[in-house]
Amino acid sequence: MQRKTFRNMQCPIARSLERVGEWWSILILRDAFYGTTRFDEFQRNLDIAPNMLTRRLNALVEEGLLEKRQYSERPPRYEYVLTQCGRDFRPVLLAMLAWGNRYFAPEGVSVQLVDRETGQAVDPVLVDAASGEQLKMGRHVVAAGPAASERTRARIASAATHMTGS
User: Fold this and answer.
1) Average pLDDT, the chain
2) Same domain, 19 and 82
């Protein structure tokens, strides 16, 4: 059965899922943020089959989240480095980290975000870049953008009657 593609959907969430919606991709990006760059390191850290790792790395390179760089000629060896697009995924990972700690860590926090200077744990929040204000349910809502199709506008208008915020 052929997997559905979200590439042509006029939804930034769907299009993003097309690029990183497979769990191995997100874990590879997580490890790349931890400093992992080499195939054998990814494989060891994730305990992932080599063929699956190859497919996921190639997909992340093709989508522009990772860059493949040769670091050895004999034998040819490559490392995988985050691109700007990949680095911009960091807030998504940090939001997932905080959400996972809040709801899915019955044994307690095993990984946390801390302030490097103080060592204090911090809780990431989304803020509006222009005002610096925290995004809040009810005040900040999803709206159709200038490029929205009529179908997208209708879907968002219909959802607006049920939404309390974004």
Assistant:
1) 90
2) yes
Tokens of 141: 């809502």
Of the residues 61, 87, 113, which one is the last residue of a structural domain?
87
pLDDT tens sequence across 34-78: 999 999 999 999 999 999 999 999 999 999 999 999 999 999 999
Query: Quick one: tokens of 139?
Result: 């005040």
Domain that holds residue 136: 90-160
Given 87, 102, 126, which residue is the final one in a domain? 87
Output 11 or 152, whichever has higher pLDDT: 152
Please give the structure tokens belonging to residue 25.
């991709």
Cα distance between residue 105 and residue 108, in whole Å: 5
**Cα 9 off chain centre by:** 18
Residues 17-39 have a mean pLDDT of 92
Residue 165 is predicted with a pLDDT of: 45
Say how many domains are in the chain: 2
Distance CA(127)–CA(130), nearest Å, equals: 9
**8 Å CB contact between 93 and 30:** yes
Cis peptide before 91 (omega within 30 of 0): no
